[in-house]
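Much of what follows relies on a compact textual record of a protein's fold. A record is reproduced here so that you can trace the correspondence yourselves:
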Amino acid sequence: MENLRSLRRFTSLPVELLGDFKQDNDIYGIWEYAAATRTTTNQDLDEALLELMTATVTCGWKQACQANTKLDSFFKKHLRDRFNIDYIKENHPEVYKGQESILTKQKELEKLFFSKTFKEEYDKLPHGFIHGDLKHDNLIVTKDGLKLIDFDESRIDARLCEMTRPIMAKSLNAEGMIQPKRLREEFIATKKLTEQILLPLEEKMLITMLLFQFLLANSRYLFYLRTPEKVHNKEHYIRKLNNRLQAMSALIDYFSVSV
């Protein structure tokens, strides 16, 4: 119960409503205004991550929700029919040139992700409620402590999915670009931070799930490039896509990921 009381302080939601955002086929977001007392730091993100993951483990959400968990519910919705290497080659040669290898690996990762073998491994992971977008902008430091906002991506999912977004967020420079060396360092630091919580199976899967977080980001950037009416600054998304592809490549090489 201590974790339940802690989570009530930590979130802007009553605990009994966590994860219950759907009614009559409509999805509702629940919001609470909180005034910030200072800028959110990486240390705040670490504290938030630990508290979320610990509460998920001890509050029984895994047992209550795992039977109804479907991998399709989030990732496939965002990945399907979005990443097209031929489109990049024909319309954005500035992205394709020099990135052929990692673009091919991205497609291989997608195949792995949709495979039966991976789904079986994924379903074995501990599941529970996750926020899904834990980054500086979504964590407010108030006079009463940390408050989470923006529950648009909250869901019942593998709990290690909570770890991938903070790793990426802490790896960004002032221009919003990922620094590959910093990404590796944050991956190792976050894994060490949570090593008392993670199970061996989760440790094995963490690097794969971080790569899938990149797949989601890259697919979103490509989607924007393919829908010009949604893009105000095409060059910005081209730079981001290039940066994320380079960061993915460095991550795969550093950890000797077989793709």
Observations:
- The radius of gyration is 19 Å.
- The beta strands are 22-23, 26-27, 127-130, 139-142, 145-148, 155-158.
